[in-house]
Each structure stands twice: as structure tokens, then as C-alpha cells.
Amino acid sequence: MIECPTYGTRMKHQKEQREIHQNTMVEHMIKLQAECTALPADACKRLLSTAVAEYERRIGAVLESSDSCQFLGSVFYASTILTTIGYGHRTCYTTWGRAATIIYAIIGIPLMLTLVNGLGKRLFLRRSAYHIHNKYLISANRDSQWPPVCRTMSVDDVDFPLALSLGIVILYILVCSAVFMMWERRWDYFTALYFFFISLSTIGFGDVVPESITFTLIGFPFYVVGLSLVSVCINVIQAKVERSCDLTVEQIYLGNEVTINSGTTTTADEPQAGNEQRPTEAPTLDVIQIFRSPGEPLLNLPRARFGWNWRAHLRNGKQKNLH
């Protein structure tokens, strides 16, 4: 709907330009007809062919030479498949070419996603590796345990600022857009920004594409690093959502004891005088049952007074599900 107010204006302008070119063509043909009376047939044919070619060039109907069959063109086509961008201006027309594209995509896209995800996690964890190392040392000294228990560092251990990760991605897009603008002389900055964002988001409309395949292939690493940074943002958001869910479960777990029916509630830490038993209208629950997604086992959380570490139980449950 945003494009609708200007759509009529654009179509009117294109129609006016087409009519101008047509009138110019007709006038030129009339002049050639007068000239052809005194020229041989071959010369007259060449003049008419030149006039028609000029008219086609003005209306944009000239068939441009394609470099899809060249090696660089093939590499560019393969890179658009790997990154799932798919601009659409380079495609296969034969059955064998399309079959090879399907097989290549089935094998290559998962490998590419694995590479991008792994690179994103490395970029995400490398900045906080020193912080995590110090945290383990402090914890080991506090618990008088040496050597400390070694475990794999994951995204859940890192409190990476979401605003910082988004800022890095935005800065990366702005800088790369300036680089692409210098490569493509006909582009302004917003066109380069639009192209790089469409490419990085793997939308790939194909309305704006680079003219030089060489520069496009040089810019392929920019796409890979950009996709990795986007993966970093996704990992940060996922970690914060999981941490919020864990905090919610912790608040429920450490809260008041839940009774089966509506009755009195007592906290786990509330002291009682002597051997006096406080009556309750219904027995309290010894465990809190959490119903997880279908296919996953039921998770039982014992009460806090038993000294049970529910975070470790959750982590061990995730590791068992992975194995």
C-alpha cells in the first residue's frame, strides 16, 4: 500500500516515455523511406535494422549478453544457493541444471547453516571467555575445590548485552553498505544499504544486483560474517528468553507451598514452635510437576528445604535429551 500512491505516476511516466520513443521511431522511419528510394536494397535494410535496434535500446528491450555459463557466473550462482539469498536473475533452464541445483541445495545449505551458526557462537563466546574463566576460578576458590569441575561453555553462561549485539550488526551493515557503494558507482548510499540488508536478511528480491560479478564474489565473505553476526543476535535473544524462563521457574519454586485444594499455605522456611503441627485443609505437595512440551519427560521439582539444586537438574535433563 505504500507504493500505491506512486504506482500510477510511474506507470504514466513509462507510458509517456514509450509514446515519445514510438513517435521518434515513426518519424525516423518516414525519413528513411524517402532516403531508401535512392539506395540499394541492402543499404536500405541496414538503415532500417539500425533504426529498429536504436528503438529497442531506448525502450530497454535489448538482449544483454549473459555470463552465467562462465566460471565466475557459476560460482556466483552457487554462492546465492548456499546463502539462501537467491536473487532470481540467474537461474537454470534445463532439467539437469535444476536437478543439480536441488541436490546442491540439499547438501550445501545445511553445511552453510552449520558454518554460520558455529562462527556466530564463536564470536559470541570469545568476548566473554575471560569473564567465564574468572568466574570459574572464583567459584572454585570459594568452594575449596581444585581442580574446578570442567564443563563446556555455552551461550547460557554468558550475559551478553542485547543492545551491544544489535549495535554491532547495525554498524556492520552501515560500513559494508559504504563499501558496496564504492564498488558500484551507479548506486547511492541508500541503494547500497537496501541491497546489503536484503542480502543479509536472505530475502533477495533481485531488483537491485551488482553489475560486476568479481566484486560480488569478493563481497561473499561479507555476507558470511554478516549472517554470523545475525546468528549472534539470535543466540543472545534465545539466551535471554531462556534465562527469563528459568527465573520464572525459580520464583515459582522458591515461593509458597502449593496446596492441592484452596486452603492455608505455609512457606518452606517458616519456623514452627516445638512439635506443634499447623493444620492444613489439604496436604501440601512434596514436588512441583512441570509439564513440558510433548515428547519430553515430566519434570518434578522437590521443595527447597531438601537442598535440591533445580538448575543443575534442568541442565542435566537438557543434556540427557540431547544424547
Automatic annotation (TrEMBL):
- Any keyword Transmembrane helix? yes
GO term, biological process aspect, one: stabilization of membrane potential
The Potassium channel domain is annotated at 66-123, 168-241
Task: State its location(s).
Answer: Membrane
> Which UniProt keywords are present, listed alphabetically?
Ion channel, Ion transport, Membrane, Transmembrane, Transmembrane helix, Transport
Among InterPro entries, the record links this protein to: 2pore_dom_K_chnl, K_chnl_dom
Q: How does it sit in the membrane?
A: Multi-pass membrane protein
Record GO terms (molecular function): outward rectifier potassium channel activity; potassium ion leak channel activity
Q: Which residues form a coiled coil?
A: none
Gene Ontology cellular component? Answer: plasma membrane
TM spans (from-to): 101-120, 162-183, 190-209, 215-237
Keyword Transport appears in the UniProt entry? yes
**Family label:** Belongs to the two pore domain potassium channel (TC 1.A.1.8) family.
Q: What is this protein called?
A: Ion trans 2 domain containing protein
Source species of the chain: Trichuris trichiura
Its taxonomic path starts at: Eukaryota, Metazoa, Ecdysozoa, Nematoda, Enoplea
